[in-house]
Amino acid sequence: MLILSATKGNNLALAEAFAAEATRQGLSTDLIALPDLQIPLYDSVMGGDSVGPGLAKLEQALKQHKGLVICAPEYNGSIPPVVSNAIAWLSVSSSDFRALFNGRPVALGSHSGGGGQKVGLAMRQQLSHLGCNVIGREVLANSQKDANPDAIAAVVSQLAEIEPAYAGVPAAV
C-alpha cells in the first residue's frame, strides 16, 4: 500500500500511523512525503524531462502499489497545492496516466485546523474523476482531536480487502 503525505508535519505523523497499522496487519507499505520529492510547480511549457527524479519515484510507487492512502490538510477549503501539482505532472508525463488511477482503491485522511471535511470532499471529487474508488470512511484529526486508531485500523483493513481484488486476485473473506 502506498501512503502519501502532503506535509512533513501533522499529516506525515498521520501517514506514519497508517503505515504502522498496515505493517501490523502484515501489509507491504511505502510512505512518501510529497514535499520531499521537490516536484516543481506545473508549467505547460516545461518539459517532463526537466521535472527531476521525484516525479519518476512517485509514478513508480503508484505502479508498484494498488492501495493508496492520502493524508492532506485542508488548504483554503480545498486540496493542498502539492497534491494537485503531483497529479498535474503525472497527467502529462506518464505514458498511461489513466492506468495510474483508474480503479485504484483510495482512502483519505486529514489532520487539519479546518476539520478536514472540505479537503475530503475536494479530493474525493478529483480522485473519482480520475477513476479511483475512494472508500467512504475517512480519518480526520485536528489539534483538539487525535486520529482514532480504530478508524485507522478499519480503513487499512478495508483497503487490504479491496487491494487483492484490484490486482486480479479474489478478495480476502
Envelope shape: globular
Mean pLDDT: 91
Helix content: 40-55%
What assembly state would you assign to the polypeptide chains in this entry?
single chain
How much strand content do the residues show? Answer: 15-25%
Our count of helices gives 7
Main traits of this protein?
disordered C terminus; 5-stranded parallel sheet; 173 residues; alpha/beta; Rossmann fold
SSE diagram, text form:
Layout: E1 2-5, H1 10-24, E2 30-33, H2 34-37, H3 53-64, E3 68-71, H4 81-93, H5 97-101, E4 105-111, H6 117-129, E5 133-141, H7 149-166
Parallel strand pairs: 1-2, 1-3, 3-4, 4-5
Helix pairs in contact: 1-7
Describe the overall structure.
- The chain has 173 residues and is α/β, with parallel strands linked by helices.
- It has a single domain (2-166), classed as Rossmann fold (3-Layer(aba) Sandwich), CATH 3.40.50.
- Helix content is 46%, strand content 16%.
- It contains 7 helices and 5 strands; from the N terminus they run βαβααβααβαβα.
- It has helices at residues 10-24, 34-37, 53-64, 81-93, 97-101, 117-129, 149-166; strands spanning 2-5, 30-33, 68-71, 105-111, 133-141.
- It has a 5-stranded parallel sheet, sandwiched between helices.
- α1 (10-24) packs across α7.
- The model is unreliable at 168-173 (pLDDT under 50).
